[in-house]
Amino acid sequence: MVSVEITKRYPGFTLAVRWSAEKSVVGLFGPSGAGKTLTLQCLAGLIRPDAGRIAVGDRVFFDAAAGVDLPPQARRLGYVFQGLALFPHLTVAKNVAFGLADRPSRERARRTAEVIERLGLAGLEHRYPRELSGGQRQRVALGRALAIDPALLLLDEPLSALDAPLRLALRDELREILTGWGTAAVVVTHDFTEAYRLADRIVVYEGGRVIQSAPRAELLWQPASEAVARIMGLRNILRGTVVKAMPDRIQIGWRGQTLEAVNSPTRSYLPPPGSPIAFFIRPEYVRLIRKDRGAPDPLHHMNLMRGRLVGEADFGTVWSLRLRLEEPGEPAQGDWDLEVEVPQLVYQILEIERDRRWDLSVHRGSIHVLPS
Amino acid sequence: MDLFPVWLSLRVSLTATALTLVVGVPLAWLLARRRFPGRNLLEAAVVLPLVLPPTVLGYYLLLAVGRRGPVGQALASVGLELAFTWGAAVLAACVGSIALVIKSAQAGFETVDRQLEQAARTLGRSEWSVFWRVTLPLAWRSVLAGTVLAFCRALGEFGITLMVAGNIPGRTQTLPLAIYDRVQAAQMDEANALALVAVGIVGVLLFVLGRLARLRY
Predict the structure, then answer these.
(1) B13: containing domain
(2) CA distance A146 to chain B (A)
(3) Using only C-alpha atoms, what is the Rg of chain A?
(4) Contact in structure between A29 and A195 (CB atoms under 8 Å)
(5) B82-121 pLDDT per residue, tens
(6) Residues whose CB is less than 8 angstroms from the CB of residue A364 and which lie 6 or more positions away in sequence, other chains included
(7) Which is nearest to A136 in space by CA: A103, A169, A184?
(8) What DSSP state is assigned to residue A158?
């Protein structure tokens, strides 16, 4: 159990966040400069918040009102820094053993050997950090933090120093290590996929505040606001007008269409008719309707629209298409209304290259309302 | 040839270097790592000995440690005398050279990534341990370079020494003073020999330093 409720003021930036999580992996996700690393530093006791309270498990690390402020030495958190911060003058074994200074030497040697073995660093004990590959360095930093049996592992952009192929491999490896060691952790990242892959709960940061804290699946399917959706990098974030809102359905007027979307009964978001509403449609959930199977049928195809292809981009295995609806008025996204993503295979079968006019449909479950 | 000035100079310089290390390294660490009131003043005071004319420095030191000076009087009350003793030569050498230790060590400490020190703290290490296990091992080359420079500077110290320790043959006449003396007395052979000894000592030191600096950590 981690609970953080802190404020820290700087000229031009204020961190004021509050979140808590059960024993699991928490992802702090958001753009750079949102205060994620600062939160980590406050957790570790490297920076002192102006006010608030920090508790991990049943231990209170910081409580401004009660005058509690444990030094980093007493918090026993395993901090893996963004730049790893391996000691360049010490070997792998000595780096890993660095936090075990207070243990008897036999126990220290045993623990060091165990950690080195479990992280697959055997044989590298006497190497210096500069003699290791990026992935090995990453594991040494992890091992050094895990060796002290931390109450909580803090990972600051753990994969950002690695190049793309290694990053993907290590992301899965890191997930396995976190599960395998059973250590609760806080992971800072600005990459949504990374946050989703590593964390059970994701806390979304923006401008020094928390704008959503939810289990990862909930965040993925129900971003709490347009701001969250933008930070997640979602595409086709659109703005319409409420026609009618019911607990399970919501009708949205947009670009001359009346779109029907699923409303979340648990959220009971019921804006009055005529009010502005934001929503998003994932590009891979827009269906292009085949022309060789007869005319589109409104009963079968929900939210039927007609559009013209105004742009396309080849991403290798998928194509990104930009469609403009055949409606008067300004398109929703500059030149186009909807971005649609189709696999390469579909692009070829439908002969999209030659055909520029398309009927499309979106299932009501694929239109996600963003409460304001 | 009288080798007393050589031995005296070595003794004075070694003592002075040891003292400047003990005082200078903690000051350098403070300047590199801590913000405190009067920090800018301290930083300015540190370089003062480098920019003030040595005789001016020596003059003020003499005022302080002389029989009528505040330090001199305090020492006299416990039966000690500093002015015109070899101790005064040590003091002169310290004042003349401590800035080199401080500036060099400070620069060294400043290049040590603070995140490494932070990491050591999260791993349970005390401030004392952080300094000895992380900061110093990563900055030792700068500290050593400053120490060697300070030693050489102490060995060559002339103006301040002359003012506070005098130029008493067999008591406070250090190597540079002795060379000056021999030249004044037109004993060029002896001056030559002493000068060569000085060049030799510094040469050996710089050679050793060069070898050490090539070591990694």
Answers:
(1) 4-213
(2) 10
(3) 25
(4) yes
(5) 989 999 999 999 999 999 999 999 999 999 999 999 999 9
(6) A249, A259, A260, A261, A262, A302, A303
(7) A169
(8) T
Q: Which of A76, A79, A101 sits opposite B125 (nearest CB)?
A: A101
B122:A102 CB<8 A? no
d(CA A292, CA B118): 66
Q: What are phi and psi of A213, to 5 degrees?
A: -135, 115
Q: What is the mean pLDDT of residues A17-37?
A: 93
Under DSSP, is residue A312 helix (H, G, I), strand (E, B) or coil? strand
DSSP string computed for A113-126: HHHHHHTT-TT-TT
**pTM for the complete prediction?**
0.85
User: Domains of chain A by range and CATH?
Assistant: 2-224 (3.40.50.300), 230-281 (2.40.50), 284-361 (2.40.50.100)
CA distance A69 to A91: 33
Cα angle B56, B92, B64; round to 5 = 60
CA-CA-CA-CA dihedral for A123, A127, A133, A137, to nearest 10: 90
Give the alpha-carbon dihedral of A187, A190, A195, A200, to 10 degrees.
60
Rounded-to-integer distance, Cα A7 and Cα B102, Å = 38
Q: Is the pLDDT of residue A23 over 70?
A: yes
Task: Answer yes or no: do A87 and B115 touch at CB < 8 A.
Answer: no
Q: Are the beta carbons of A98 and B217 separated by less than 8 Å? A: no
- The answer to whether B136 faces chain A, any CB pair under 8 Å, is no
The mean pLDDT value for A197-210 works out to 95
Is it the case that residue B36 has pLDDT exceeding 80?
A: yes
Q: Is the dihedral of CA B178, B183, B187, B191 positive or negative?
A: positive
Provide the 3-class DSSP secondary structure of residue A178: helix
Name the burial class of residue B16, with classes exposed (0-12), middle (13-18) and buried (19+) by CB atoms within 10 angstroms of its CB: buried
Q: What are phi and psi of A110, to 5 degrees?
A: -65, -45
Decide if A141 contacts A121 (C-beta within 8 A): no
Instruction: Return the residue of B nearest to A91 by Cα.
Output: B217
**Count of domains forming chain B:** 1
B53: domain CATH number is 1.10.3720.10
Residue with tokens 């002339």: B158
DSSP per residue, chain B: ---HHHHHHHHHHHHHHHHHHHHHHHHHHHHHH---TTHHHHHHHHHHHHHS-HHHHHHHHHHHHSTTSHHHHHHHHTT---TTSHHHHHHHHHHHHHHHHHHHHHHHHHHS-HHHHHHHHHTT--HHHHIIIIIHHHHHHHHHHHHHHHHHHHHH--HHHHHHT---TTTT--HHHHHHHHHHTT-HHHHHHHHHHHHHHHHHHHHHHHHHHTS--
Dihedral, CA of residue A252, residue A254, residue A259 and residue A261, to nearest 10: -50
Q: Using CA atoms, how far apart are residues A44 and A72, in angstroms rounded to an integer?
A: 6
Inter-chain contact A72–B134, Cβ cutoff 8 Å?
no
Rounded to 5 degrees, what angle do the CA atoms A42, A44, A46 make?
65
Residues in chain B: 217
ipTM of the complex: 0.84
Per the CB < 8 A criterion, the answer to whether A263 and A255 are in contact is no
What are A169's two structure tokens?
Answer: 């491999």
Alpha carbons A95 and A114: distance in angstroms, whole number: 14
pLDDT at B217 over 60: no
Backbone angles phi, psi at A325, to 5 degrees: -70, 150
